[in-house]
Amino acid sequence: xxxxxxxxxxxxxxxxxxxxxxxxxxxxxxxxxxxxxxxxxxxxxxxxxxxxxxxxxxxxxxxxxxxxxxxxxxxxxxxxxxxxxxxxxxxxxxxxxxxxxxxxxxxxxxxxxxxxxxxxxxxxxxxxxxxxxxxxxxxxxxxx
Length: 144
Hints:
alpha+beta
């Protein structure tokens, strides 16, 4: 039995082995550099868009099975809080100040009210301090 296995590897020889590795390398390169079609981004946006939220944040949860992605947990559901590529606005009086490339987990705390109308890709965070922040899922998902 061992001789059969040895004979199979001998059939390849050094040249055959190099050719086999080259083919595997080419296939891996093709699959690695195949352009991302963005359908995952659209599915994610649709999932967010159809949520209607009007609750207080009960806790912040870090999903260890999903690259430690942070989630704001409320009632019986949760919503993702983008990491270092989140996009947000701070509302003061009648002006909106852009907060680009921010970590949403720094902007949302336990006890804050989160409001997101169904069909929207923006979520309003009303801080316990009175500060108002709008988290923009559409702009934040452009890099997905």
